[in-house]
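As the next step, I selected for study a record pairing a protein sequence with its backbone structure tokens, which the following lines show:
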Amino acid sequence: MRNMYRSLMALVLIFVSAALVRAQETTTFPKIGFVNTLEVLYGTEEGKKEIGTVEQFMSEKQKEFESKGTELEKLREQFINQQRTLNPETRNEMQRNIEERDKEIKRFQEDTQLEINRRRDALLEKMSEKIQRIITEFAEKNKFSIIFLRDQSQPYVAASLDVTQEIIKIYNERYPLAAPAASQQQVPAQPKAGEPAKK
């Protein structure tokens, strides 16, 4: 009886082991990937161009802001140096002028920041739809179960799981920058006096 029980258990173990082996052979682990969205934004040709436009706008506004600040500082210095010799009416007028300039600079700074944010948001909206479409098609074509979006705050992702460069390559191929149009057609050189015209 004991021997029969042992034989039965041995057969059960054999069947269980075989089932586990088959399960391991047929089970496929999900294929996952990661895309650094900021890297795509800064790595594509379109992204570089659009970001360059925003940065140029920021640079121009920064120069304007510094110019306004320099003018305000000059007015303040002038007021400090002359306030003892100014009559009350002129002194009050200069103070009001300084306060007005100060408010103007603060409004300028706030308005500029709002415009920068608006341009950045427009850029992200414009490119994010294209990026998402490419990621979806890439995932379906390469049998990915899921592709996570990440940014620089995530400390580490294995290089084998990062598909950012593939997405950048596809984006540049699909949305190439238009070549700059020639400003004017090349005009053939005129023959010098006494020389026959070239055919």
DSSP finds five helices and two strands in the chain. The longest helix spans residues 88-141. Residues 1-21 have pLDDT under 50 and may be disordered. Residues 28-174 form one domain.
